[in-house]
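Regression test case RT-17, inverse folding.

Input:
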């Protein structure tokens, strides 16, 4: 935030009008999409200038922000196929937990690591009805389009609940069935679970 505040001031913008806290979120949202070439994005001229100057200042300071961590890896893999190949061989098996909360950059990393693999060994665990981080860049489409992204993937639905009663699960099912953009499931109690 301090770097961004300095950049905004140096550009001659008023930090009341161009609040650094707001711009931290905007830039984070841009980087979370996983697009490595910002010039290909349809940003306004001011946003493009602020982003360019901010990234230049980070480079001058030999620093990165959180969003850059994955973006730099993506750029490296895109520009150096031999390095990508090394890591594709190293990570033969990939497990992702809370997959419903992945963002575009994280999905791009998964795709590039499994690219050109005849049978990618990727296991993603997630619940489309528990996606709560869209405000932080999570893209529910990653889980909804998993079978399209990885044709031939085996989907295993874990619908048996060992903690809640039948009444609670019945209420939960009646509520979540109305959610838009979901794969769907029918929660049920374990065979020996009380229905009360």
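Golden output:
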């Amino acid at each position: 935030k301090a770097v961004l505040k300095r950049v905004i001031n140096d550009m001659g913008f008023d930090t009341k009008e161009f609040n650094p806290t707001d711009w931290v979120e905007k830039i984070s949202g841009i980087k979370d999409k996983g697009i490595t070439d910002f010039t290909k994005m349809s940003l306004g001229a001011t946003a493009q200038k602020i982003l360019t100057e901010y990234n230049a200042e980070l480079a001058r300071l030999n620093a990165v922000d959180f969003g850059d961590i994955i973006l730099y890896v993506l750029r490296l893999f895109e520009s150096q196929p031999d390095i990508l190949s090394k890591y594709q061989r190293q990570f033969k098996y990939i497990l992702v937990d809370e997959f419903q909360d992945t963002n575009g950059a994280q999905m791009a990393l998964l795709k590039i690591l499994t690219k050109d693999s005849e049978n990618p060994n990727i296991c993603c665990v997630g619940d489309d009805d528990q996606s709560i981080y869209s405000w932080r860049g999570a893209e529910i489409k990653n889980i909804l389009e998993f079978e399209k992204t990885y044709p031939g993937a085996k989907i295993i639905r874990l619908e048996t609940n060992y903690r809640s009663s039948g009444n609670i699960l019945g209420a939960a099912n009646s509520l979540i069935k109305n959610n838009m953009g979901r794969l769907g499931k029918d929660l049920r109690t374990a065979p020996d679970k009380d229905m009360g």
